[in-house]
Specification:
mainly alpha; 4 domains; three-stranded antiparallel sheet; 8 strands; globular
Protein backbone atom coordinates (compact mmCIF):
# COMPACT_ATOMS: atom_id res chain seq x y z
CA UNK A 1 0.00 0.00 0.00
CA UNK A 2 2.83 2.40 0.80
CA UNK A 3 4.48 1.83 -2.58
CA UNK A 4 1.16 2.28 -4.43
CA UNK A 5 0.59 5.57 -2.61
CA UNK A 6 4.05 6.78 -3.56
CA UNK A 7 3.49 5.87 -7.20
CA UNK A 8 0.24 7.87 -7.19
CA UNK A 9 2.05 10.83 -5.68
CA UNK A 10 4.71 10.65 -8.38
CA UNK A 11 2.05 10.59 -11.11
CA UNK A 12 0.44 13.64 -9.57
CA UNK A 13 3.75 15.45 -9.47
CA UNK A 14 4.31 14.82 -13.18
CA UNK A 15 1.33 17.08 -14.00
CA UNK A 16 2.62 20.01 -11.97
CA UNK A 17 4.58 22.86 -13.47
CA UNK A 18 7.62 22.55 -11.22
CA UNK A 19 9.12 19.78 -9.22
CA UNK A 20 11.11 20.75 -6.13
CA UNK A 21 13.06 18.48 -3.82
CA UNK A 22 11.11 19.85 -0.88
CA UNK A 23 7.78 18.87 -2.36
CA UNK A 24 8.96 15.33 -2.95
CA UNK A 25 10.49 14.95 0.50
CA UNK A 26 7.32 16.12 2.21
CA UNK A 27 4.94 13.98 0.20
CA UNK A 28 6.72 10.66 -0.21
CA UNK A 29 6.99 7.97 2.40
CA UNK A 30 10.23 7.97 4.34
CA UNK A 31 10.58 4.20 4.11
CA UNK A 32 10.29 3.92 0.34
CA UNK A 33 14.03 4.08 -0.17
CA UNK A 34 14.65 1.33 2.36
CA UNK A 35 12.03 -0.92 0.81
CA UNK A 36 13.54 -0.57 -2.68
CA UNK A 37 17.17 -1.16 -1.76
CA UNK A 38 18.86 -3.08 -4.56
CA UNK A 39 20.98 -6.15 -4.03
CA UNK A 40 24.72 -5.52 -3.98
CA UNK A 41 26.27 -6.30 -7.35
CA UNK A 42 29.72 -7.69 -7.95
CA UNK A 43 30.89 -4.45 -9.56
CA UNK A 44 30.23 -2.72 -6.22
CA UNK A 45 32.67 -4.95 -4.35
CA UNK A 46 36.33 -3.97 -4.57
CA UNK A 47 39.39 -5.44 -2.93
CA UNK A 48 40.95 -2.30 -1.47
CA UNK A 49 44.31 -3.38 -2.92
CA UNK A 50 46.42 -0.60 -4.40
CA UNK A 51 48.21 -2.77 -6.94
CA UNK A 52 45.38 -4.98 -8.11
CA UNK A 53 42.54 -4.10 -10.46
CA UNK A 54 39.53 -5.90 -9.09
CA UNK A 55 36.37 -6.37 -11.13
CA UNK A 56 34.86 -3.25 -9.57
CA UNK A 57 37.90 -1.20 -10.63
CA UNK A 58 37.63 -2.59 -14.15
CA UNK A 59 33.95 -1.62 -14.35
CA UNK A 60 34.71 1.88 -13.06
CA UNK A 61 37.50 2.27 -15.62
CA UNK A 62 35.21 1.27 -18.47
CA UNK A 63 32.55 3.70 -17.26
CA UNK A 64 35.07 6.52 -17.21
CA UNK A 65 36.29 5.60 -20.67
CA UNK A 66 32.74 5.47 -22.02
CA UNK A 67 31.87 8.87 -20.59
CA UNK A 68 35.25 10.34 -21.61
CA UNK A 69 35.78 11.40 -18.03
CA UNK A 70 38.84 10.95 -15.93
CA UNK A 71 41.64 8.57 -16.80
CA UNK A 72 41.68 4.94 -15.74
CA UNK A 73 44.31 5.57 -13.10
CA UNK A 74 42.45 8.43 -11.50
CA UNK A 75 39.27 6.38 -11.59
CA UNK A 76 40.97 3.58 -9.71
CA UNK A 77 42.39 5.99 -7.15
CA UNK A 78 39.05 7.67 -6.57
CA UNK A 79 37.33 4.35 -6.05
CA UNK A 80 39.88 3.19 -3.51
CA UNK A 81 40.17 6.57 -1.87
CA UNK A 82 36.51 6.60 -1.02
CA UNK A 83 36.86 3.44 0.97
CA UNK A 84 40.31 3.89 2.43
CA UNK A 85 40.89 7.50 3.36
CA UNK A 86 37.47 8.78 4.35
CA UNK A 87 37.16 9.30 8.07
CA UNK A 88 33.89 8.37 9.77
CA UNK A 89 32.81 11.98 10.23
CA UNK A 90 33.64 12.89 6.64
CA UNK A 91 31.85 9.82 5.39
CA UNK A 92 28.77 10.79 7.32
CA UNK A 93 28.79 14.35 6.02
CA UNK A 94 29.21 13.23 2.42
CA UNK A 95 26.02 11.14 2.46
CA UNK A 96 23.99 13.39 4.77
CA UNK A 97 21.34 15.58 3.10
CA UNK A 98 20.79 19.17 4.08
CA UNK A 99 17.31 18.55 5.43
CA UNK A 100 17.04 15.15 7.10
CA UNK A 101 14.12 14.03 9.19
CA UNK A 102 14.59 11.92 12.31
CA UNK A 103 12.38 8.93 11.62
CA UNK A 104 14.31 6.01 13.16
CA UNK A 105 13.44 5.31 16.77
CA UNK A 106 15.87 3.60 19.11
CA UNK A 107 15.71 3.17 22.87
CA UNK A 108 19.22 4.22 23.86
CA UNK A 109 18.61 6.50 26.82
CA UNK A 110 20.82 8.95 28.66
CA UNK A 111 20.76 7.30 32.06
CA UNK A 112 22.96 6.15 34.90
CA UNK A 113 22.41 2.58 33.74
CA UNK A 114 23.88 3.42 30.33
CA UNK A 115 27.00 4.92 31.89
CA UNK A 116 27.39 1.94 34.18
CA UNK A 117 27.16 -0.61 31.35
CA UNK A 118 29.57 1.30 29.12
CA UNK A 119 32.07 1.62 31.92
CA UNK A 120 31.69 -2.10 32.66
CA UNK A 121 32.44 -2.99 29.05
CA UNK A 122 35.57 -0.85 28.81
CA UNK A 123 36.90 -2.07 32.14
CA UNK A 124 36.25 -5.77 31.53
CA UNK A 125 36.77 -6.34 27.81
CA UNK A 126 37.98 -3.48 25.67
CA UNK A 127 41.54 -3.51 26.98
CA UNK A 128 41.83 -7.23 26.14
CA UNK A 129 40.11 -6.91 22.76
CA UNK A 130 40.64 -3.24 21.82
CA UNK A 131 38.13 -2.71 19.02
CA UNK A 132 37.01 0.77 20.14
CA UNK A 133 38.95 3.91 20.95
CA UNK A 134 37.29 5.09 24.15
CA UNK A 135 38.04 8.77 23.61
CA UNK A 136 36.46 8.80 20.16
CA UNK A 137 33.55 6.69 21.36
CA UNK A 138 32.62 9.15 24.11
CA UNK A 139 32.78 12.08 21.70
CA UNK A 140 30.46 10.33 19.26
CA UNK A 141 28.18 9.32 22.11
CA UNK A 142 27.77 12.95 23.10
CA UNK A 143 26.68 13.72 19.54
CA UNK A 144 24.31 10.77 19.58
CA UNK A 145 22.65 11.83 22.82
CA UNK A 146 21.88 15.24 21.35
CA UNK A 147 18.99 13.49 19.60
CA UNK A 148 17.66 12.18 22.91
CA UNK A 149 14.05 13.02 23.74
CA UNK A 150 13.53 13.09 27.55
CA UNK A 151 9.75 13.13 27.18
CA UNK A 152 9.67 9.87 25.22
CA UNK A 153 12.86 8.37 26.73
CA UNK A 154 14.28 7.40 23.35
CA UNK A 155 16.38 8.62 20.44
CA UNK A 156 15.13 9.62 17.01
CA UNK A 157 17.74 9.31 14.27
CA UNK A 158 17.65 9.95 10.56
CA UNK A 159 17.89 7.07 8.12
CA UNK A 160 19.81 9.46 5.87
CA UNK A 161 22.62 9.65 8.43
CA UNK A 162 24.29 6.22 8.15
CA UNK A 163 27.26 7.27 10.28
CA UNK A 164 25.02 7.94 13.27
CA UNK A 165 22.95 4.80 12.68
CA UNK A 166 26.07 2.64 12.59
CA UNK A 167 27.36 4.23 15.77
CA UNK A 168 24.00 3.62 17.45
CA UNK A 169 24.22 -0.02 16.36
CA UNK A 170 27.75 -0.17 17.77
CA UNK A 171 26.51 1.24 21.08
CA UNK A 172 23.75 -1.38 21.22
CA UNK A 173 26.32 -4.13 20.67
CA UNK A 174 28.44 -2.75 23.52
CA UNK A 175 25.34 -2.81 25.74
CA UNK A 176 24.58 -6.39 24.68
CA UNK A 177 28.05 -7.52 25.80
CA UNK A 178 27.82 -5.53 29.03
CA UNK A 179 24.41 -7.00 29.90
CA UNK A 180 25.79 -10.47 29.23
CA UNK A 181 28.69 -9.78 31.58
CA UNK A 182 26.36 -8.39 34.23
CA UNK A 183 24.21 -11.52 34.27
CA UNK A 184 26.41 -12.82 37.05
CA UNK A 185 24.01 -13.72 39.81
CA UNK A 186 26.77 -13.13 42.35
CA UNK A 187 25.00 -10.55 44.49
CA UNK A 188 21.51 -10.71 46.03
CA UNK A 189 20.51 -7.45 44.34
CA UNK A 190 21.18 -8.79 40.88
CA UNK A 191 17.67 -10.19 40.53
CA UNK A 192 17.12 -13.00 38.05
CA UNK A 193 20.26 -13.45 35.91
CA UNK A 194 18.11 -14.80 33.05
CA UNK A 195 16.60 -11.32 32.68
CA UNK A 196 19.97 -9.75 32.05
CA UNK A 197 20.81 -12.42 29.48
CA UNK A 198 17.56 -11.66 27.66
CA UNK A 199 18.27 -7.93 27.77
CA UNK A 200 21.62 -8.61 26.11
CA UNK A 201 19.86 -10.53 23.36
CA UNK A 202 17.39 -7.66 22.92
CA UNK A 203 20.21 -5.13 22.52
CA UNK A 204 21.80 -7.47 19.98
CA UNK A 205 18.60 -7.53 17.92
CA UNK A 206 18.37 -3.76 18.13
CA UNK A 207 21.93 -3.48 16.83
CA UNK A 208 21.11 -5.73 13.88
CA UNK A 209 18.00 -3.65 13.09
CA UNK A 210 19.92 -0.37 13.04
CA UNK A 211 22.63 -1.89 10.86
CA UNK A 212 20.05 -3.06 8.34
CA UNK A 213 18.68 0.49 8.04
CA UNK A 214 22.09 1.75 6.87
CA UNK A 215 23.20 -1.24 4.83
CA UNK A 216 23.76 0.79 1.65
CA UNK A 217 26.51 2.90 3.23
CA UNK A 218 27.77 0.60 5.98
CA UNK A 219 30.69 -0.74 3.94
CA UNK A 220 32.20 2.76 3.79
CA UNK A 221 32.16 3.37 7.55
CA UNK A 222 34.95 2.05 9.74
CA UNK A 223 32.64 1.68 12.74
CA UNK A 224 31.01 -1.18 10.83
CA UNK A 225 34.25 -3.15 11.21
CA UNK A 226 34.22 -2.44 14.94
CA UNK A 227 30.60 -3.55 15.08
CA UNK A 228 31.43 -6.86 13.39
CA UNK A 229 34.34 -7.45 15.77
CA UNK A 230 32.12 -6.91 18.81
CA UNK A 231 29.50 -9.21 17.30
CA UNK A 232 32.23 -11.83 16.89
CA UNK A 233 33.08 -11.46 20.56
CA UNK A 234 29.42 -11.59 21.61
CA UNK A 235 28.81 -14.75 19.58
CA UNK A 236 31.83 -16.38 21.24
CA UNK A 237 30.36 -15.52 24.64
CA UNK A 238 27.08 -17.09 23.51
CA UNK A 239 28.96 -20.23 22.34
CA UNK A 240 27.80 -19.66 18.76
CA UNK A 241 31.17 -20.44 17.20
CA UNK A 242 29.93 -20.90 13.63
CA UNK A 243 28.14 -17.56 13.66
CA UNK A 244 31.19 -15.95 15.24
CA UNK A 245 33.41 -17.26 12.45
CA UNK A 246 31.01 -15.99 9.80
CA UNK A 247 30.88 -12.50 11.29
CA UNK A 248 34.67 -12.42 11.54
CA UNK A 249 34.87 -13.22 7.82
CA UNK A 250 32.74 -10.15 7.14
CA UNK A 251 35.00 -8.04 9.34
CA UNK A 252 38.14 -9.24 7.55
CA UNK A 253 36.61 -8.65 4.12
CA UNK A 254 35.47 -5.15 5.04
CA UNK A 255 38.81 -4.27 6.65
CA UNK A 256 40.58 -5.08 3.38
CA UNK A 257 38.00 -3.05 1.49
CA UNK A 258 38.62 -0.04 3.75
CA UNK A 259 42.38 -0.37 3.49
CA UNK A 260 42.99 -1.19 7.14
CA UNK A 261 45.72 -3.60 6.10
CA UNK A 262 47.66 -0.81 4.35
CA UNK A 263 48.57 2.21 6.47
CA UNK A 264 49.81 4.14 3.43
CA UNK A 265 46.13 4.80 2.63
CA UNK A 266 45.63 6.60 5.95
CA UNK A 267 47.39 9.80 4.90
CA UNK A 268 44.37 12.00 5.59
CA UNK A 269 43.81 10.58 9.09
CA UNK A 270 44.83 12.36 12.27
CA UNK A 271 47.38 10.89 14.66
CA UNK A 272 44.63 9.68 16.99
CA UNK A 273 42.70 8.08 14.12
CA UNK A 274 45.87 6.46 12.78
CA UNK A 275 46.62 4.96 16.19
CA UNK A 276 43.04 3.74 16.51
CA UNK A 277 43.13 2.07 13.09
CA UNK A 278 46.44 0.41 13.84
CA UNK A 279 45.12 -1.08 17.08
CA UNK A 280 41.90 -2.15 15.34
CA UNK A 281 43.74 -3.85 12.50
CA UNK A 282 46.00 -5.88 14.76
CA UNK A 283 42.97 -6.89 16.82
CA UNK A 284 41.33 -8.21 13.64
CA UNK A 285 44.56 -9.98 12.72
CA UNK A 286 44.78 -11.63 16.13
CA UNK A 287 41.10 -12.65 16.10
CA UNK A 288 41.64 -14.30 12.72
CA UNK A 289 44.45 -16.41 14.18
CA UNK A 290 42.51 -17.20 17.36
CA UNK A 291 39.47 -18.34 15.40
CA UNK A 292 41.64 -20.57 13.22
CA UNK A 293 43.28 -21.92 16.37
CA UNK A 294 39.95 -22.71 18.05
CA UNK A 295 38.05 -24.07 15.05
CA UNK A 296 40.92 -25.77 13.23
CA UNK A 297 40.35 -23.94 9.96
CA UNK A 298 42.98 -22.11 7.88
CA UNK A 299 43.54 -18.48 8.72
CA UNK A 300 42.36 -15.79 6.29
CA UNK A 301 44.90 -12.95 6.55
CA UNK A 302 48.25 -13.65 4.90
CA UNK A 303 51.23 -11.86 6.42
CA UNK A 304 52.40 -10.82 2.96
CA UNK A 305 49.24 -8.71 2.57
CA UNK A 306 49.82 -6.68 5.73
CA UNK A 307 51.52 -3.30 5.50
CA UNK A 308 50.84 -1.95 8.99
CA UNK A 309 53.56 -1.28 11.54
CA UNK A 310 53.37 -3.22 14.77
CA UNK A 311 54.24 -1.79 18.19
CA UNK A 312 57.96 -2.61 18.23
CA UNK A 313 58.96 1.00 17.62
CA UNK A 314 56.63 2.18 20.40
CA UNK A 315 58.18 -0.29 22.84
CA UNK A 316 61.71 0.79 21.94
CA UNK A 317 60.81 4.44 22.33
CA UNK A 318 59.24 3.82 25.72
CA UNK A 319 62.13 1.73 26.93
CA UNK A 320 64.67 4.29 25.79
CA UNK A 321 62.89 7.15 27.48
CA UNK A 322 61.75 5.00 30.45
CA UNK A 323 58.45 6.82 30.36
CA UNK A 324 54.91 5.70 29.69
CA UNK A 325 52.70 6.96 26.96
CA UNK A 326 50.37 9.79 27.98
CA UNK A 327 47.37 8.68 30.01
CA UNK A 328 44.09 9.00 28.17
CA UNK A 329 41.59 10.50 30.57
CA UNK A 330 38.16 9.44 29.54
CA UNK A 331 35.57 12.10 30.18
CA UNK A 332 32.05 11.51 31.41
CA UNK A 333 29.08 11.48 29.11
CA UNK A 334 28.74 15.11 30.15
CA UNK A 335 31.23 17.72 31.26
CA UNK A 336 30.74 17.07 34.97
CA UNK A 337 33.92 15.03 35.33
CA UNK A 338 35.70 11.80 34.46
CA UNK A 339 34.21 8.45 35.31
CA UNK A 340 37.25 6.30 34.48
CA UNK A 341 40.76 6.44 33.09
CA UNK A 342 42.56 3.86 31.02
CA UNK A 343 46.35 4.23 30.82
CA UNK A 344 47.70 3.35 27.41
CA UNK A 345 50.97 2.39 29.03
CA UNK A 346 53.92 0.16 28.37
CA UNK A 347 52.28 -2.98 29.78
CA UNK A 348 49.32 -2.71 27.42
CA UNK A 349 51.59 -2.10 24.43
CA UNK A 350 53.60 -5.19 25.38
CA UNK A 351 50.34 -7.15 25.59
CA UNK A 352 49.31 -6.04 22.09
CA UNK A 353 52.75 -6.83 20.68
CA UNK A 354 52.65 -10.29 22.25
CA UNK A 355 49.31 -10.96 20.56
CA UNK A 356 50.84 -10.00 17.21
CA UNK A 357 53.83 -12.26 17.81
CA UNK A 358 51.52 -15.06 18.92
CA UNK A 359 49.48 -14.71 15.73
CA UNK A 360 52.56 -14.74 13.51
CA UNK A 361 53.96 -17.79 15.27
CA UNK A 362 50.66 -19.64 15.03
CA UNK A 363 50.58 -19.10 11.27
CA UNK A 364 54.12 -20.50 11.02
CA UNK A 365 53.14 -23.50 13.14
CA UNK A 366 50.02 -24.08 11.05
CA UNK A 367 51.94 -23.94 7.76
CA UNK A 368 54.81 -26.12 8.99
CA UNK A 369 53.04 -28.64 11.20
CA UNK A 370 49.30 -28.77 10.45
CA UNK A 371 48.76 -27.90 6.80
CA UNK A 372 47.74 -30.92 4.74
CA UNK A 373 50.74 -30.85 2.39
CA UNK A 374 53.44 -29.82 4.85
CA UNK A 375 56.56 -31.99 4.42
CA UNK A 376 57.84 -31.06 7.89
CA UNK A 377 54.80 -32.15 9.89
CA UNK A 378 55.59 -34.50 12.75
CA UNK A 379 59.36 -33.95 12.55
CA UNK A 380 60.87 -33.26 15.95
CA UNK A 381 63.41 -30.76 14.57
CA UNK A 382 60.62 -28.60 13.16
CA UNK A 383 58.72 -28.81 16.44
CA UNK A 384 61.78 -27.69 18.37
CA UNK A 385 62.26 -24.75 15.99
CA UNK A 386 58.72 -23.59 16.73
CA UNK A 387 59.33 -24.01 20.46
CA UNK A 388 62.49 -21.91 20.18
CA UNK A 389 60.53 -19.13 18.45
CA UNK A 390 57.93 -19.27 21.21
CA UNK A 391 60.64 -19.06 23.87
CA UNK A 392 62.07 -16.01 22.10
CA UNK A 393 58.63 -14.40 22.07
CA UNK A 394 58.24 -14.97 25.82
CA UNK A 395 61.70 -13.53 26.49
CA UNK A 396 60.65 -10.30 24.79
CA UNK A 397 58.20 -9.62 27.62
CA UNK A 398 59.29 -7.36 30.48
CA UNK A 399 59.48 -8.89 33.98
CA UNK A 400 56.32 -7.05 34.98
CA UNK A 401 54.27 -9.02 32.44
CA UNK A 402 55.35 -12.46 33.67
CA UNK A 403 52.64 -14.49 35.41
CA UNK A 404 52.70 -14.64 39.20
CA UNK A 405 50.11 -16.53 41.23
CA UNK A 406 47.94 -13.87 42.96
CA UNK A 407 47.25 -16.22 45.89
CA UNK A 408 50.84 -17.11 46.73
CA UNK A 409 52.53 -13.89 45.55
CA UNK A 410 54.00 -11.29 47.86
CA UNK A 411 52.09 -8.43 49.41
CA UNK A 412 53.47 -6.00 46.83
CA UNK A 413 51.72 -7.96 44.09
CA UNK A 414 48.38 -7.51 45.85
CA UNK A 415 48.35 -3.87 44.75
CA UNK A 416 48.70 -4.74 41.06
CA UNK A 417 45.59 -3.66 39.09
CA UNK A 418 43.29 -6.47 38.04
CA UNK A 419 43.63 -5.54 34.37
CA UNK A 420 47.38 -6.07 34.51
CA UNK A 421 46.98 -9.39 36.34
CA UNK A 422 44.53 -10.54 33.69
CA UNK A 423 46.87 -9.53 30.87
CA UNK A 424 49.60 -11.56 32.55
CA UNK A 425 47.31 -14.58 32.81
CA UNK A 426 46.14 -14.34 29.21
CA UNK A 427 49.72 -14.13 27.95
CA UNK A 428 50.76 -17.06 30.15
CA UNK A 429 47.89 -19.34 29.14
CA UNK A 430 48.11 -18.52 25.43
CA UNK A 431 51.82 -19.32 25.40
CA UNK A 432 51.26 -22.61 27.24
CA UNK A 433 48.41 -23.71 25.00
CA UNK A 434 50.33 -22.85 21.84
CA UNK A 435 53.33 -24.86 23.04
CA UNK A 436 51.06 -27.83 23.75
CA UNK A 437 49.60 -27.51 20.25
CA UNK A 438 53.10 -27.50 18.77
CA UNK A 439 54.29 -30.44 20.87
CA UNK A 440 51.16 -32.49 20.25
CA UNK A 441 51.98 -32.50 16.54
CA UNK A 442 54.51 -35.24 17.24
CA UNK A 443 51.69 -37.57 18.31
CA UNK A 444 49.20 -36.45 15.66
CA UNK A 445 51.46 -36.36 12.58
CA UNK A 446 54.52 -38.32 13.68
CA UNK A 447 52.80 -41.63 12.96
CA UNK A 448 52.74 -40.68 9.27
CA UNK A 449 56.49 -41.26 9.18
CA UNK A 450 56.79 -44.92 10.13
CA UNK A 451 60.55 -45.06 9.90
CA UNK A 452 60.99 -42.32 12.45
CA UNK A 453 58.13 -43.24 14.78
CA UNK A 454 59.81 -46.22 16.45
CA UNK A 455 63.06 -44.34 17.00
CA UNK A 456 61.49 -41.39 18.84
CA UNK A 457 60.25 -43.00 22.05
CA UNK A 458 62.25 -40.58 24.17
CA UNK A 459 60.83 -37.63 22.23
CA UNK A 460 57.29 -38.90 22.69
CA UNK A 461 57.85 -39.51 26.40
CA UNK A 462 59.29 -36.02 26.78
CA UNK A 463 56.34 -34.56 24.87
CA UNK A 464 53.91 -36.26 27.24
CA UNK A 465 55.72 -34.89 30.29
CA UNK A 466 55.90 -31.37 28.85
CA UNK A 467 52.21 -31.28 27.93
CA UNK A 468 51.19 -32.60 31.35
CA UNK A 469 53.27 -29.96 33.09
CA UNK A 470 51.97 -27.14 30.91
CA UNK A 471 48.36 -28.31 31.23
CA UNK A 472 48.57 -28.57 35.01
CA UNK A 473 50.20 -25.14 35.26
CA UNK A 474 47.51 -23.61 33.05
CA UNK A 475 44.65 -25.06 35.10
CA UNK A 476 46.27 -23.96 38.35
CA UNK A 477 46.82 -20.41 37.04
CA UNK A 478 43.21 -20.07 35.87
CA UNK A 479 41.80 -21.41 39.13
CA UNK A 480 44.05 -19.16 41.21
CA UNK A 481 42.90 -16.10 39.29
CA UNK A 482 39.20 -16.98 39.46
CA UNK A 483 39.53 -17.33 43.24
CA UNK A 484 40.45 -13.64 43.45
CA UNK A 485 37.69 -12.41 41.16
CA UNK A 486 34.44 -10.82 42.34
CA UNK A 487 32.86 -10.96 38.88
CA UNK A 488 33.83 -14.36 37.55
CA UNK A 489 31.35 -14.38 34.66
CA UNK A 490 33.19 -11.76 32.62
CA UNK A 491 36.25 -14.01 32.49
CA UNK A 492 34.38 -17.30 32.70
CA UNK A 493 34.20 -18.16 29.00
CA UNK A 494 37.94 -17.77 28.51
CA UNK A 495 38.67 -19.62 31.76
CA UNK A 496 36.43 -22.54 30.79
CA UNK A 497 37.99 -22.85 27.34
CA UNK A 498 41.48 -22.89 28.86
CA UNK A 499 40.49 -25.62 31.33
CA UNK A 500 38.85 -27.77 28.66
CA UNK A 501 41.83 -27.52 26.33
CA UNK A 502 44.34 -28.21 29.10
CA UNK A 503 42.46 -31.31 30.25
CA UNK A 504 42.32 -32.53 26.67
CA UNK A 505 46.10 -32.48 26.33
CA UNK A 506 46.48 -34.01 29.78
CA UNK A 507 44.07 -36.92 29.26
CA UNK A 508 44.50 -37.69 25.56
CA UNK A 509 48.26 -38.16 25.40
CA UNK A 510 49.59 -41.70 25.97
CA UNK A 511 51.10 -42.44 29.36
CA UNK A 512 54.82 -42.69 29.84
CA UNK A 513 56.46 -46.11 30.07
CA UNK A 514 58.39 -45.12 33.20
CA UNK A 515 56.52 -46.38 36.28
CA UNK A 516 57.70 -43.52 38.50
CA UNK A 517 56.89 -40.99 35.82
CA UNK A 518 53.49 -42.57 35.23
CA UNK A 519 52.67 -42.31 38.94
CA UNK A 520 53.60 -38.63 38.97
CA UNK A 521 51.49 -37.97 35.90
CA UNK A 522 48.47 -39.67 37.46
CA UNK A 523 48.86 -37.57 40.60
CA UNK A 524 49.06 -34.45 38.45
CA UNK A 525 45.92 -35.46 36.58
CA UNK A 526 44.00 -36.00 39.81
CA UNK A 527 45.02 -32.64 41.23
CA UNK A 528 44.17 -30.80 38.00
CA UNK A 529 40.78 -32.50 37.82
CA UNK A 530 40.04 -31.41 41.38
CA UNK A 531 41.01 -27.82 40.60
CA UNK A 532 39.01 -27.83 37.37
CA UNK A 533 35.98 -29.23 39.20
CA UNK A 534 36.20 -26.49 41.80
CA UNK A 535 36.47 -23.69 39.25
CA UNK A 536 33.77 -24.94 36.86
CA UNK A 537 31.48 -25.64 39.80
CA UNK A 538 31.63 -22.00 40.81
CA UNK A 539 31.36 -20.65 37.26
CA UNK A 540 28.27 -22.77 36.56
CA UNK A 541 26.54 -21.13 39.52
CA UNK A 542 27.12 -17.80 37.74
CA UNK A 543 24.71 -18.89 34.98
CA UNK A 544 27.59 -19.60 32.58
CA UNK A 545 26.27 -22.25 30.21
CA UNK A 546 29.63 -23.30 28.82
CA UNK A 547 30.90 -23.99 32.35
CA UNK A 548 27.81 -26.07 33.14
CA UNK A 549 28.28 -28.15 30.00
CA UNK A 550 31.97 -28.61 30.75
CA UNK A 551 31.08 -29.67 34.29
CA UNK A 552 28.85 -32.45 32.97
CA UNK A 553 31.70 -33.80 30.85
CA UNK A 554 34.16 -33.50 33.71
CA UNK A 555 31.82 -35.39 36.02
CA UNK A 556 31.83 -38.39 33.70
CA UNK A 557 35.61 -38.30 33.40
CA UNK A 558 36.09 -38.27 37.17
CA UNK A 559 33.60 -41.08 37.74
CA UNK A 560 35.25 -43.25 35.12
CA UNK A 561 38.66 -42.68 36.68
CA UNK A 562 37.55 -43.36 40.26
CA UNK A 563 35.60 -46.44 39.20
CA UNK A 564 32.05 -45.43 40.02
CA UNK A 565 29.22 -47.75 38.98
CA UNK A 566 27.87 -45.19 36.54
CA UNK A 567 29.54 -45.56 33.17
CA UNK A 568 29.94 -42.88 30.54
CA UNK A 569 27.76 -44.74 28.07
CA UNK A 570 24.67 -44.79 30.28
CA UNK A 571 21.86 -42.28 30.09
CA UNK A 572 21.20 -41.19 33.69
CA UNK A 573 17.66 -40.20 34.46
CA UNK A 574 18.30 -37.44 36.95
CA UNK A 575 22.04 -37.04 36.96
CA UNK A 576 23.31 -33.81 38.43
CA UNK A 577 26.07 -32.83 40.77
CA UNK A 578 23.72 -33.31 43.69
CA UNK A 579 25.08 -36.24 45.71
CA UNK A 580 22.51 -36.42 48.48
CA UNK A 581 20.39 -39.15 46.86
CA UNK A 582 23.13 -41.68 46.07
CA UNK A 583 26.42 -42.97 47.38
CA UNK A 584 29.01 -40.21 47.75
CA UNK A 585 31.69 -42.00 45.75
CA UNK A 586 33.03 -39.43 43.32
CA UNK A 587 31.58 -36.21 44.68
CA UNK A 588 32.44 -36.85 48.30
CA UNK A 589 36.02 -37.73 47.40
CA UNK A 590 36.32 -34.48 45.46
CA UNK A 591 34.68 -32.49 48.25
CA UNK A 592 37.00 -33.90 50.90
CA UNK A 593 40.11 -33.30 48.82
CA UNK A 594 39.23 -29.74 47.87
CA UNK A 595 37.98 -28.90 51.36
CA UNK A 596 41.21 -30.09 52.97
CA UNK A 597 43.26 -28.08 50.50
CA UNK A 598 41.23 -24.96 51.23
CA UNK A 599 41.56 -25.40 54.99
CA UNK A 600 45.34 -25.61 54.66
CA UNK A 601 45.33 -22.58 52.38
CA UNK A 602 43.14 -20.61 54.81
CA UNK A 603 45.47 -21.40 57.70
CA UNK A 604 48.44 -20.21 55.67
CA UNK A 605 46.99 -17.04 54.16
CA UNK A 606 44.11 -16.26 56.50
CA UNK A 607 41.92 -15.58 53.45
CA UNK A 608 38.40 -16.91 53.98
CA UNK A 609 36.25 -14.21 52.44
CA UNK A 610 35.33 -16.23 49.33
CA UNK A 611 33.89 -19.74 49.50
CA UNK A 612 34.83 -21.80 46.46
CA UNK A 613 34.14 -25.18 48.03
CA UNK A 614 32.10 -27.79 46.23
CA UNK A 615 28.61 -27.56 47.67
CA UNK A 616 27.17 -31.08 48.25
CA UNK A 617 23.69 -29.59 47.74
CA UNK A 618 24.68 -28.03 44.41
CA UNK A 619 22.59 -28.93 41.38
CA UNK A 620 23.05 -27.95 37.79
CA UNK A 621 21.29 -24.62 37.20
CA UNK A 622 18.15 -24.60 35.10
CA UNK A 623 18.98 -22.71 31.94
CA UNK A 624 16.44 -20.77 29.86
CA UNK A 625 14.46 -23.08 27.63
CA UNK A 626 11.83 -22.56 24.95
CA UNK A 627 9.26 -21.89 27.63
CA UNK A 628 11.13 -18.78 28.75
CA UNK A 629 9.37 -15.80 27.24
CA UNK A 630 12.06 -13.33 26.32
CA UNK A 631 9.51 -10.82 25.08
CA UNK A 632 7.67 -10.48 28.36
CA UNK A 633 7.89 -7.72 30.91
CA UNK A 634 10.49 -8.55 33.52
CA UNK A 635 10.58 -7.13 37.03
CA UNK A 636 14.04 -6.13 38.24
CA UNK A 637 15.61 -4.20 41.05
CA UNK A 638 15.60 -1.15 38.78
CA UNK A 639 11.93 -1.41 37.82
CA UNK A 640 10.12 -3.20 35.00
CA UNK A 641 12.16 -3.89 31.88
CA UNK A 642 10.31 -3.98 28.59
CA UNK A 643 12.21 -5.91 25.93
CA UNK A 644 9.87 -4.50 23.32
CA UNK A 645 10.59 -0.87 24.18
CA UNK A 646 14.15 -1.57 25.39
CA UNK A 647 13.76 0.52 28.54
CA UNK A 648 12.91 0.41 32.25
CA UNK A 649 9.41 1.46 33.30
Amino acid sequence: MRIERDVQDLRAVQHTAEVSPSSLSDELSVSTELELVEEERIDCIHSGHRYYNSFAVQIETLKNAASRGTSAASGRESLLGTASNTSPSASAQSCRPQAARNNVKTFISSSTRLKYLLNLFFEEYNFLYPCIDRDAFNLQLQCLLQHYSPDQDCLYLSDADPEMLIFAALTCMVLAIAEHIEADGHFPTDGNPHERIVRGQAWYRESARLLSLSSRHADKIINTVRLFMLETLYMLMRESFRRSSQVLCRAVELSFSLGLNDESTWTSCSCAETRSRRVLWWTIYFFDRRMAYKLGRPYMIRDAEVSVADFTADIRAMESSRAHLPILLIGDLNASGPIASTPLDCDWIHYLQFNIGWGRLFSKAWDSLYSLTSPRAGIIEEIEIMEALLAKLKRSLPPGMKWQDPVSSSSTEADVPDQKVRMRLVIYTRANLLQMLIRNNLHLRGCEKDCEWDSSRSDRSYTTQVCHKLAASTVQAVVSYVRTRRRERSFGTYATLCIIESLYYMLSLPSTEDNIGAFDLEATKTLSLEQAWECLNDLSRRQLTIATNALKVLKGIIESRIGNQLSLGEQPTAISLNTQDRQPSVDQVMINNVASQQEDHAKTTGCQDLDFSIDPQFTLPVLPGPEFDDESLMGTDMGIWSTERMMYT
